[in-house]
Amino acid sequence: MRIAYFDCFSGASGDMILGSLIDAGLSSRRLREELRRLRIPTIRLKVKKVLKGGISATQVIVEGKSEKKPHRDLKEMLKIIDRSGLASEIKEKSKEIFQRIASVEAKIHQKPINQIHFHEIGGLDSIVDIIGSVWGLRQMGIDEVHVSKVNVGTGFVKCEHGILPVPAPATLALMKGKPIYSSLVEKELLTPTGAALLTSLGSQFGQMVPMKVERIGYGAGRDDFPHPNLLRLIIGTSVANSGKERVLVVETNIDDMNPQFYDYVMEKLFNMKVQEVFLTPILMKKNRPATLLTVICPPAKLPSIIEFLLKETTTLGLRWHEEERARADREILTLKTKYGQIRFKVARWEGSVINLSPEYEVCKKLALKRNISLKDVFEEAKKVAISQQESQRNNHLHRRR
Fold it and tell me: Is the pLDDT assigned to residue 399 strictly greater than 60?
């Protein structure tokens, strides 16, 4: 599994997140090409290397001609995204982030959500930051985003609504349930855009999980402080723990929900990074047909799973119990084939490969792109994988001799 870990010792903003991705290897050229899909001709992306506290970093600045409407409402923001040529997955995630911010602002200012104007994120820069970050993480093959506890700063900040305490009310609302702290720097270190991105994309907050580091990136903030004003991004593959682990099995019986809703429920649960979701047909009292919805998840996710199922399904109650399960080590391996790069899911048990399977979505994309049989892509992937394993086995035997 490929993990992106944001180390937020100096907070985070949208441009710092985007800068850290570019510093870690995201192509700024390809990013500019992707941003053209927004069909906003005034956008110009400036990317430059800077030093912050003696550390080399990448700073991103969005330039463009002055806009007639620097502040937009939610409807206008969503219309820009819908009319763009972005991939549907990028559109949906970006729209979700804007809707979260609008919802928080509406509650704080006691206004209908459609009357909220995006003072903090209505300009070109935040549109670029959000869409660029969502696209960039996908482009870099990130499976999970993890976030450290976040330094939010302190003091006051001047904005459209006047003088507000730091963290700003919208920022604090977006970070609800997430670990934050202040190093007493008299500045707004975490912006609403940064908070929205981290909490919408991040699946785990707190300490760094064990990983093999592959890339490191630093995104530079615009101000200078006594400490390096940087967001550090660490990308690596998880160091899997084979053997046993504790999980929770959450269950509920449902007999009165539209069957079409299960697709939505399952997709949202998997986006919450649960380990398994499955449906089982059952019979309830009076032989009434029903569905048993089962979710397997880490114990820490129980509160969010309960809240989601009670709000999004027709269930009136849930049950759960703890179980122990064995799991193999898992990692992602990318191999070159004659059709292109293909990612494989590798399973190991006590150091030995027990399963190596190509990712279906990658193979499907290559088959459609090249107008060839999906079966041929899978066969080629299998052949390359077997060759790779044999090569590794021969090298191991050679070293032992």
Answer: no
Q: Which residues of 278-298 are buried (b: 16+ CB within 10 A; e: fewer)?
A: eeeeeeeeeeeebbebebbbe
- Output the CA torsion 108→114→117→118 (10° steps): 80
Q: Which of 217, 237, 257 is the last residue of a domain?
A: 237
Same domain, 334 and 317: no
| Same domain assignment for residues 272 and 386 | no
Verify that 165 and 296 share a domain, yes or no. no
Are 212 and 333 contained in the same domain?
no
What is the span of the domain harbouring residue 104? 2-237
**Cβ(245)–Cβ(327) under 8 Å?**
yes
Place of tokens 């985003």: 145
Q: Are strands 329-337 and 243-254 parallel, antiparallel or unpaired?
A: unpaired
Q: Which residues contact 88 (CB under 8 A, 6 or more apart)?
A: none
The pLDDT value recorded for residue 66 is: 47
Three-class HEC string of 106-155: HHHHCCCHHHCECCCCCCHHHHHHHHHHHHHHHHCCCCEEEECCEECECC
Give the C-alpha separation, 391 to 250, whole Å: 43
Domain termination site, one of 237, 270, 302: 237
Q: How many Cα atoms within 13 Å fall on the side-chain side of residue 40?
A: 29
pLDDT digits (tens, 9 = 90+) for 185-237: 999 999 999 999 999 999 889 989 888 899 999 999 999 999 999 999 999 98
Look at residue 388 and tell me whether its pLDDT is greater than 60: yes
- Give how many domains the chain has, as a whole number: 3
Q: Which residues contact 352 (CB under 8 A, 6 or more apart)?
A: none
CATH number, domain containing residue 334? 3.10.20
Q: Give this prediction's pTM.
A: 0.67
End-to-end CA, the chain? 33
